[in-house]
Hints:
Elements: H1 2-28, H2 31-36, E1 48-49, E2 55-56, H3 80-90, H4 101-113, H5 117-131, H6 138-151, H7 154-166, H8 173-184, H9 189-206, H10 212-224, H11 228-240, H12 247-257, H13 264-277, H14 284-296, H15 302-315, H16 317-338, H17 344-352, E3 360-362, E4 402-408, E5 413-420, H18 453-459, H19 462-472, H20 479-487, H21 493-505, H22 512-524, H23 528-532, H24 534-548, H25 562-568, H26 575-587, H27 594-606, H28 610-622, H29 629-647, H30 658-678, H31 681-685, H32 692-695
Antiparallel strand pairs: 1-2, 3-4, 4-5
Helix pairs in contact: 4-5, 4-6, 5-6, 6-7, 6-8, 7-8, 8-9, 8-10, 9-10, 10-11, 10-12, 12-13, 12-14, 13-14, 13-15, 14-20, 20-22, 22-25, 27-28, 27-29, 28-30
Amino acid sequence: xxxxxxxxxxLVRSANVIRNNAMLMSSSMPFExxxxxxxxxxxxxxxxxxxxxxxxxxxxxxxxxxxRDTKSQDEVLEDEGDIQEQELIENSPLPSQKLTMKQYSxxxxxxxxxxxxxxxxxxxxxRMIKQDRVKPNNYIYNILIGACAEVGYTKKAFRLYxxxxxxxxxxxGDTYTCLFEACANSPWALxxxxxxxxxxNLMIDKGIEPNLTNYNAMIKAFGRCGDLTTAFKIIDxxxxxxxxxxxxxxxxxxxxxxxxxxxxxxxGLIVWRKMLKLKEKPNIYxxxxxxxxxxxxxxxxxxxxxxxIRIIQEETPLAIEISNQVEILQISSSEKLLNPPDTPEERLxxxxxxxxxxxxxxxxxxxxxxxxxxxxxxxxxxxxxxKDEFEVSIDDSKQNCNKLTPVVNTKTVTLQFVDKLxxxxxxxxxxxxxxxxxxxxxQVLALQEVQTLQDKFAIIGGxxxxxxxxxxxxxxxxxxxxxxxxxxxxxxxxxxxxxxETMKSLEIKADIDFxxxxxxxxxxxxxxxxxxxxxxxxxxxNKLRKKTMHPLNKKIRxxxxxxxxxxxxxxxxxxxxxxxxxxxxxxxxxxxxxxxLGTLLRQGTAHNDxxxxxxxxxxxxxxxxxxxxxxxxxxxxxxxxxxxxxxNFVENSEPISKGxxxxxxxKFSSFYNNWLKDINLKEVLEPEHPWQQFRENYPEPLQxxxxxxxxxxxxxxxxxxxxxxxx
Length: 727
C-alpha cells in the first residue's frame, strides 16, 4: 500500500512539473514563435536525462531563466586568463615529449655554434617553458647569458638574469662574470657603465664576495666603458684583500688602458712596469695587448712622457746597482785568484770575502797566456803550493769560455780545461726599450712628443727588439702578433718583406687575413702595384704548402675571400679594373656587397670619372644590392663637388673644357635623380639597431651550407649483447 502511494505521488509530481514548465516556456517564448505554433497544440520542452534516470525538462546547469534581462543567453563573457588556463589543461604535453636538461643544453649549443642566437633563446622561452613545460635550471640560463654577453646583447642578458631570480634559481659566480662581460661588450659605453655600476653595488649590498674571475671581468667592464679610475680602484681592493695579482688580471688592466685613446699607451707602460715589479712573467696576450695599445692609443704630451721616464727610473736604479756590484765582484774574484795575496792579512781578507780558488771561469776570448811561474807563498795556511811545486798547464788553442779546475797531485797543481763551451755573444741593445727590465737611458739626448705609429713602436723596441724581448721571456710570437705588428711597421716594402722573412724563420704560417692586411696597408699608401703583387705571394705560398704538406688537404690552401676583394677594390683606379674585379667575383660565385661597391665608388669620385660612377650605380641597381648611408654620402659629396667645380671653373688651369664637364654632369644628374626614386630612402637613412639582428630569425643563406640541427633522441634502448651460456 505504501509502495502504491509513493508511485502515485511521483506521477502527480511529474505532471505538475511538466505543466509549470510549459507555462514558463510559453511566457518566455518570443512573439514570432507563438504565431508559428497552431492553436491547441502543447509545446513540449526539451528533456534532459541524467545518470540516475531522472528526466529534466531544462538543463540543470542553467540558472536565471526567470530573469527579464534583455541580454541574450548566447553571449558568453570569457577572460583571457581563463582561456589560457583551459588551453594549458587541454594541451598538456606527454611525458615522452620532454627532454633532459643535457639534451636541451646540447640543442642550444648547436644553434650558438652557428651564431643563431634567436633560435637558441626560443629553445628556452618557447619550447621548454610554453610547449614542454619544463622548469629550466641555472646552467641553461648561464649558457644563454654568456651567449648574449659575447655579442653585446646587454638588455636580454639582464632580462634572463631577472627571470632566473624570479624562478628561485641559484645565481653563481659564472652568472656575474657573464653579466660584466655583457657590460664590457655593450654597443653603448654609458649604458654598459650604468649596468656595471648597478651590478657591482648589488653584489656589495647582498654581501657577495667576488672571486678572481669576477674581479677580472669587473676590470675589463669598467675599463672598456671608459672608467679607468674604478678599474684601478678594483686592483687596490684586491691588494687590500690580499688577493695575489697575477698576469691575467694585469692583462685585463691593459685591456682597460686601450679605452683611453689620448694617453692609453702611457697607462699601459705603467701597468707593464708594475707587472715586472711584481715578478709576473708576461705571456703572449700581454705582448699582443701592448701592440694594440701602440696602434690605437697615444703616449700623451711631453710632460706625460717625462713623468713616465721618471716613474721608470725610480724603479730601475736598484736593479742596476745590484747588477753592477755583481760584475765588480766577479772581476775582483778573478783578479785575486790569478794573483794570490802576498801577506797573511790579504789572505785573511780574501777568505772573508768568500773567494774560492777551486774553480775559475775565463770569459774573455782575448786573454793573454798564463805565466809559467807564480810567486812563492810562504804561508802554511795557503792552499797554493810553493813556487818550485806549482805548475800550470793551459791549452793555448782554447779561447772560449771554459772552466779551469785545479788537479792537485802530491807536488804539483795543474789547471785543465774540463768543459768546452762555445762562446755566447750577447748583442747589446743600444736603443732604449721601455718594456725591458734594464733601460739604457745614457744615449737619450732629448725628449719630444710622439705622434706616428712608427715612433710609438720604436719606444717599445721596434720590430727586432720587440721579438727579442719576447724571446727573453720564452714567449713565441703567434700569427696575431705578426698581424698586429704589420700595422705599426714603416711604410716600406723592405720592412714588410723583413717581417715575412721573420715569420718564416719562426715557422709561423700566414693566413688569408694577414695577406688582406698587407694589401690594405699598401693601398693606403697608394702603392697599388705592390698591392696587386700580393696575389702572387699567395700563389707562391700555396705552391710551397703543397710541396711540404699533404696536397689533398684543403685546409692548408689559401683562398681569397670576400674581404680580399674588398681591399683589392681600393686599388681599382679605372672602370676597366673595376669590371675585371667584379667579373672575377662572379666567376668564383661570391656575392657582391655594398662595402665593395662603396669602395669602388670612392675611387671613381676621387678621380672625377663619371663613367666609373654611373657604372657602379647601375651595378647596385641591377644586382639589387641595398645601399647604405656611406654610399649615399659619397654620391652627395661628388654632386656638391661638381656644382662647386662648375661655378668656379678656370679655363687655363683645368685640363677639361667647361662644356664637356657640364655635359657629363647633366647626364649624371638626370641618372642620379631617377636612381634615388628607385631606392627606399627611409630604410637607408634610418640606422639599423645593433640588437635587431638578434630579435629576428637567422636569414636563409644564399649559398649552400652544411648546417643542420640534430634533434636529440627521445627514447633510449639499452645495448644488450648476446652472451653465450657456458655450462
